[in-house]
Design brief:
Layout: H1 13-36, H2 44-49, H3 53-56, E1 80-84, H4 95-99, E2 104-108, H5 120-127, E3 133-139, H6 140-152, H7 189-202, E4 207-210, E5 213-217, H8 221-224, E6 232-236, H9 238-241, H10 247-258, E7 265-270, H11 273-277, H12 284-293, H13 299-306, H14 323-340
Parallel strand pairs: 1-2, 1-3, 3-7
Antiparallel strand pairs: 4-5, 5-6
Length: 349
């Protein structure tokens, strides 16, 4: 009679748990190391798209920042009131006005749900503004929304009190960001960033990388930008998704402008990064009509020309003007302001 086959020994639960724990520890440790060694993003498009700034981060040292020029005045002391958006949040272009002796205060469209209602003049007077010039600054992609919301509120009242702060809402860059361990990122960020960056490097046409970040090929890109992968750059998908400014936008804009008569005003419509580098005629109908109104400079033509002269006019990993671009814009706007409001006496030329 043959012997019965040996019975398998039962699995030791403790050993099985240790194996699972060790395997999980190895995976988590690997994810952590990759994430820690992935550069922390310093551009808004590299951050929301989770693309590596090793490839898309700018390399040109920013100009020096004069801290005193970034500090603005209370609204009741201001010569110039600026209603702006994220292009004004570093106070960098406004610094040229402050350095020239103008007293400036900046508030933001987003604070008031992107709308200025029909009582805005009385609202500003109640806040204490008795200055001599209002500058409305808006990026191209958000101007139509702001005009629509202001049109809907033409018979309404401002729902929030005026608010502004003396220091920048966002601090300007003072140096090219260096490498630092990416402690604040999620555990999987490194792997996702590696995957997205690989897709961006392999792209042969416009490619939506993640959320609102699109990588686009740029003609003569290495003459336009300073980053490593300079034949392409990151662009904000909303530049195109929001649609161009149209003749309908122009009609809303005319109505908004005509209703603001109590204080002289100047408009700064800053073109989208995509418009500046890739789609120069994107909002052509609006721009032609805007220029005929004479309510502000043609920043579309200005940026289109300057992009050929200045590398990193806009950051390659961000949707905004670079610090160099902000300084250039500030010097240009200083000359525009002086056409309306003479420079204070005893101040730098």
């Amino acid at each position: 009679m043959s012997a019965a086959p040996p019975r398998p020994s039962p699995t030791n639960p403790a050993k099985l748990w240790l194996r699972v724990f060790f395997a999980g520890f190895v995976v988590i440790s690997a994810l952590l190391v990759v994430t820690l060694l992935t550069p922390a993003p310093y551009g808004d498009l590299s951050r929301i798209g989770r693309v590596s700034d090793h490839e898309f981060g700018w390399k040109i040292q920013p100009p020096p920042v004069i801290d005193a020029d970034l500090i603005e005045s209370p609204v009741n002391q201001a010569d110039i009131l600026i209603v702006g958006d994220s292009f004004s949040m570093t106070h960098q272009w406004q610094a040229a006005l402050v350095h020239a002796g103008y007293r400036v205060t900046t508030t933001y469209w987003a604070t008031y749900s992107e709308a200025l209602c029909g009582d805005v003049d009385a609202w500003l007077a109640q806040a204490g503004f008795h200055g001599k010039l209002i500058i409305f600054q808006s990026v191209e992609r958000l101007l139509d929304e702001r005009m629509q919301k202001s049109e809907a509120c033409v018979n309404g009242q401002m729902s929030r009190k005026f608010t502004a702060r003396p220091d920048p809402f966002i601090q300007p860059f003072r140096a090219v960001p260096g490498f630092a361990l990416n402690w604040s990122a999620r555990l999987t960020s490194g792997v996702i960033t590696y995957r997205n960056t690989r897709r961006a490097k392999k792209a042969t046409s416009d490619t939506l990388i993640s959320r609102a970040t699109t990588v686009r090929l740029v003609p003569d890109g290495c003459e336009r930008f300073s980053h490593r992968l300079c034949d392409r750059a990151l662009f904000y998908a909303d530049d195109v998704d929001n649609g161009p400014l149209t003749l309908k936008t122009l009609e809303r804009f005319k109505a908004f402008t005509a209703a603001r008569k109590s204080t002289p005003h100047l408009w700064m419509v800053i073109p989208n990064k995509t418009t500046t580098y890739l789609k120069p005629d994107y909002s052509r109908e609006f721009v032609d009509g805007f220029n005929k109104l004479g309510v502000g400079p043609d920043l579309f033509a200005l940026m289109r020309e300057e992009r050929l002269k200045m590398r990193d006019l806009y950051f390659p990993n961000d949707t905004h003007l670079s610090t160099h671009g902000q300084v250039f814009l500030g010097q240009f706007m200083l000359q525009e302001v002086r056409k309306i409001l003479p420079a204070p006496t005893g101040t730098p030329p």
